[in-house]
């Protein structure tokens, strides 16, 4: 998945509010075999001193989720084929362990879960919708609501 792009193809792309480096600056050389971060992208230096980097769109001033890249003797930063979740995206470690590759879904913001105010009493044995409109509540024998705690999508999300 690493791709070294020639200097003639270099561009700096600016898409508001994000910016992304598409390739390395041509005059920059690196130490062969090293791995490092550039913005939120992981880079690896090839045997010829040319760097190859992932090409994620990076929000301004975003630090990577692994801002202190571990440089093991083989340059691995994660266990090959390891899987983790980051928000609603699934990430998988590359076969050679040199970086994470993640899906790029826009994750919906989770609506806050709401519960009836403690002073509210309800009729024992009844069920009703909670104030957020997406959770269900059951009224206990003591007149207190016990509600589901599902994450609710904002109105009009779909």
TrEMBL record:
GO CC annotation terms, alphabetical: extracellular region
Entry keywords, A to Z: Disulfide bond, Protease inhibitor, Secreted, Serine protease inhibitor
Site (Reactive bond): 55-56, 149-150
Disulfide bonds listed in the record: 30-45, 40-58, 43-53, 78-93, 134-152, 137-147
Pfam families registered for this protein in UniProt: Pacifastin_I
InterPro entries the record matches: Pacifastin_dom, Pacifastin_dom_sf
GO MF, one annotated term: serine-type endopeptidase inhibitor activity
Signal peptide: none
SUPFAM superfamilies assigned: PMP inhibitors
Residue ranges of every copy of the Pacifastin domain listed in the record: 27-61, 75-110, 119-155
Subcellular locations according to the entry: Secreted
Family: Belongs to the protease inhibitor I19 family.
Protein name per UniProt: AGAP011319-PA
